[in-house]
Design brief:
Rossmann fold; 5-stranded mixed beta sheet; 31 strands
Length: about 650
C-alpha cells in the first residue's frame, strides 16, 4: 500500500507531512519560487524511507493562483458566438468600490484580438436558432490556428441546455491542434449566466498549460507513486480531472487547512470554529461547521470564478506585510508584502520593516526560532528597520513595533467578523483554530479583541495545511444545469434526476466506500443570486426559511431550481492525537527552556518548548516554540494542553 504524503507549497516554506497509520512525520524546508517543484521533490526525498518507496502524493499548489495573479498565463484564444466576443469584457454592472472616483475594472486575460466569433446560436432551452455548419466550424478552426494559441476556451450561449455545438467545435479544434488543451464551458461549469461561465472557462484554459507543465515535472520526479491535487471544495481530484480542469484545484492549499481545522473541531466536539491561517503574505479565514459549506461566489484578480470552493476570506496581512507611514503620517501595514524574496528585514536581504520584524524586535522570535535554527534570522536588521520607521512616525521603536501588530490584528479581526458577525454568527460562541507560520503569534490577541471563547493551536501548526492534504479522502462531483419550477409540482422528477447524478458520481469512485449528497441551487424566479440547499422534499420550505435568515425576507414568488450538484466522497483519515505527557509529569508545572529579553526593551519573556509542556495550565506572558511555528500567550491568558492542540483562554 502506498504511503500518503501531503505537500503544501507556500511563498517562503514548503511543508511535507507523511502519515502511515497513526504516525505522522513533518518536514519543513525553504521554497524555491523560481521552480516550486524542486522544493517539493527535495521535501519528498527527505521523508521517503527509500527512493523506490510507493507514495500517494496529495499536493496543494498555488501555481495556477500565482499565474493568474501575476498575469503569467498561456496565450489563450476564446471561441464564442458571433456578436458575443465582447461579453467577457462588458461583464456585470456592479461596482466593487462604490466610492472610487477613478474605478478600475478587471481586464480579461484574453484580449480582443484573441477572440473568435462563430456563426451559430441556440435559445435558452437549447433549441437551434442558427445552426452550426461545417463551413462555420472550418472558418473558426482556420482563425484559431492563425492566432497560434497555447490554450483554447470555448463558450457558447446556453450551452448548459445543450452542449452539442461546443463539443463539435472542440473535436474539430482538437484534430487541427492536438497538442493544445481545450476547455468547454458546459463541461467545466454547467450553469446559466454567460459572463461567469465564460470567465471561469477562460481562466481554466489559461492556467492549464502552466499547471500541466508543473505537475508533469513533479510527477516525473516522484518515480514510484502518484501525484494528485486537492479540489478547492475538499476531496482529492482524480488525475484526469485535475489535468482537464486545474481551476477546480485553484485554492487547494487553503482547502487543506480548512479540512484539517474541521477535524480538530470534531475531535474537540465544537460545532463551529473560525479557521485562521496566517502565512507570509496573507491571512485566510473560514467559518468551519459540522457540515462543510461551499460557495459558488469565488473570484480571482477581480474576475469571477464561480466554482465550488470552501468560503475562504483572504486579507493582505501576513508576516511579510510591510509597515510604512502614509502621506498623512499614519502607520499602515500592507497590503504590500516583502514576500519570500527579499522577505522581512530579518531574512537578511530586505530592509523594509514587516510584521515579522515587529515580532523579532519585541522578542517573540529569536535568532534561532525558525526551523529550530536552520533558518537563521538577523535580529539587528529587524531593530534597524523598526527604528527607521519610528523616526518617520515620531514614535519610540517599541511603540512602533507594538503599533504594527495592533494594525495587523485590526485587519485580521475585520476578516473574522466578515465570516461571523456579517453572517449573523456571534464570534463570542466561535473558537479560533489558528495555524500557519504566524497564526499562533496573533491567535490570542484576536481571541481577546473579538471576545472569542478560546484559541486552539493544533499540532504542527506551521504545516497544518499539509496535514489536511495528507488526511484527505477522494471526492467526485457531477453537475447539471436545469430549469425547474417548484411551484409547478416538478419536484418528484428533480429528486429522481438527483439520484441519477449521485449514482454517476459514486460510480466514479470505482466501488470505494463513500457517502453522497445532492444539492440544488435554488432562487426566486428571475432572481440572480441562488442558495445552495440539500435536495429533499422539503426544499421549498427550507428555501423560504434560509432566504428569510440570510436576507431578512421571504415572498410567495415562484421558486425555481437552476442547477443540481451530486457529490460522493470517501471519508478523510482521522487526525492522529498528539501524545500527552506521562502521568509522572502531569503534576509538575512546565519549566522554561530559557528567557529572552526583547531587543527594544521590556520584561524578559519565558520561552517554552512545546514538547516540554505538561497538563498543568501555563499562565502568560510566555512564548511556546516548536519546529514549525511559535505561539504567543499574552498576560491575563492561560494555556492548557490537549491531544488536539494548545488551548488559550482568558484567566
Amino acid at each position: 500500500m502506498a504511503t500518503r504524503i501531503g505537500i503544501d507549497t507556500g511563498g517562503t516554506f514548503t511543508d511535507v507531512v507523511r502519515i502511515r497509520g497513526r504516525k505522522m512525520l513533518v518536514h519543513k524546508l525553504r521554497s524555491t519560487p523560481d521552480d516550486p517543484s524542486r522544493a517539493v521533490l527535495d521535501g519528498l526525498e527527505a521523508v521517503r524511507q527509500s527512493p523506490d518507496e510507493a507514495v500517494d502524493l496529495v499536493h496543494g499548489t498555488t501555481v495556477g493562483l500565482n499565474a493568474t495573479l501575476t498575469g503569467n498565463l498561456a496565450r489563450t484564444v476564446f471561441v464564442t458566438n458571433s456578436g458575443c466576443e465582447d461579453l467577457i469584457e462588458i461583464g456585470r454592472q456592479e461596482r466593487v468600490d462604490l466610492y472610487a472616483l477613478d474605478p478600475h475594472r478587471a481586464v480579461p486575460p484574453v484580449p480582443r484580438r484573441l477572440r473568435v466569433g462563430v456563426a451559430c446560436r441556440r435559445g435558452a432551452g437549447g433549441e437551434v436558432v442558427e445552426a452550426l455548419t461545417r463551413e462555420a466550424i472550418a472558418k473558426a478552426v482556420a482563425a484559431v490556428k492563425k492566432l497560434r494559441p497555447e490554450a483554447i476556451a470555448i463558450g457558447l450561449l446556453h450551452s448548459p441546455a445543450d452542449a452539442h455545438d461546443e463539443h463539435r467545435l472542440q473535436q474539430a479544434l482538437r484534430r487541427a491542434l492536438p497538442e493544445v488543451p481545450i476547455t468547454c464551458s458546459a463541461d467545466l461549469l454547467p450553469a446559466f449566466g454567460e459572463y461567469e461561465r465564460f470567465s471561469a472557462t477562460i481562466l481554466n484554459a489559461a492556467i492549464a498549460p502552466v499547471v500541466g507543465r508543473y505537475t508533469r515535472r513533479v510527477a516525473d520526479g516522484i518515480g514510484n507513486g502518484t501525484l494528485r491535487l486537492l479540489r478547492s471544495s475538499l476531496g482529492i481530484l482524480p488525475p484526469e480531472e485535475a489535468a482537464q480542469f486545474p481551476s477546480r484545484a485553484m485554492f487547494s492549499g487553503p482547502a487543506g487547512g480548512v479540512l484539517a481545522a474541521g477535524q480538530v473541531a470534531r475531535r474537540l466536539q465544537m460545532d463551529q470554529v473560525a479557521a485562521f491561517d496566517m502565512g507570509g503574505t496573507s491571512a485566510d479565514v473560514c467559518l468551519v461547521e459540522r457540515e462543510t459549506s461551499l460557495s459558488n461566489e469565488g473570484a480571482i484578480a477581480g474576475l469571477p470564478l464561480p466554482l465550488p470552493t470552501v468560503p475562504v476570506h483572504t486579507v493582505a496581512a501576513g508576516g511579510g506585510s510591510i509597515a510604512y507611514a502614509d502621506a498623512g503620517g499614519a502607520l499602515r501595514v500592507g497590503p504590500q508584502s516583502a514576500g519570500a524574496d527579499p522577505g522581512p528585514a530579518c531574512y537578511g536581504k530586505g530592509s523594509e520593516p514587516t510584521v515579522t520584524d515587529a515580532h523579532v524586535a519585541l522578542g517573540h522570535l529569536g535568532p534561532d526560532t525558525l526551523l529550530a535554527g536552520a533558518f537563521p534570522i538577523d535580529v539587528d536588521a529587524s531593530v534597524r528597520a523598526i527604528e527607521r520607521l519610528a523616526k518617520q512616525l515620531s514614535m519610540t521603536p517599541r511603540q512602533t513595533a507594538e503599533g504594527i501588530l495592533t494594525v495587523a490584528d485590526a485587519t485580521m479581526a475585520r476578516a473574522i467578523l466578515v465570516i461571523t458577525a456579517e453572517r449573523a454568527v456571534d464570534p463570542a460562541h466561535v473558537p479560533l483554530v489558528a495555524y500557519g507560520g504566524a497564526g499562533g503569534l496573533h491567535a490570542a490577541s484576536l481571541m481577546l479583541q473579538l471576545g472569542m471563547p478560546s484559541a486552539v493551536m493544533p499540532s504542527h501548526p506551521g504545516a497544518f495545511s499539509a496535514v489536511g492534504l495528507a488526511l484527505a479522502g477522494e471526492a467526485t462531483e457531477v453537475t447539471e444545469a436545469v430549469r425547474a419550477s417548484l411551484s409547478s409540482g416538478g419536484l418528484t422528477e428533480i429528486l429522481a434526476r438527483g439520484q441519477e447524478l449521485l449514482a454517476q458520481a459514486q460510480g466514479l469512485l470505482n466501488g470505494k466506500r463513500n457517502r453522497g449528497r445532492v444539492e440544488a441551487m435554488v432562487r426566486y424566479q428571475g432572481q440572480g443570486a441562488c442558495l445552495r440547499l440539500p435536495l429533499t422534499r422539503r426544499l421549498a420550505i427550507n428555501f423560504l426559511a434560509e432566504h428569510q435568515r440570510r436576507f431578512g425576507f421571504a415572498t410567495d414568488a415562484p421558486i425555481e431550481i437552476v442547477q443540481l450538484r451530486a457529490r460522493a466522497e470517501c471519508a478523510a483519515s482521522a487526525l492522529p492525537a498528539a501524545e500527552l505527557p506521562s502521568t509522572a509529569t502531569t503534576r509538575r508545572a512546565p519549566t522554561p527552556a530559557m528567557t529572552r529579553r526583547p531587543p527594544l526593551g521590556g520584561r524578559a519573556l519565558p520561552i517554552y518548548d512545546r514538547q516540554s509542556l505538561t497538563s498543568q495550565p501555563l499562565h502568560g506572558p510566555a512564548i511556546i516554540e516548536e519546529s514549525t511555528a511559535t505561539t504567543l500567550v499574552p498576560a491575563k491568558c492561560q494555556l492548557r494542553l490537549s491531544p488536539f492542540g494548545l488551548r488559550i483562554a482568558r484567566c
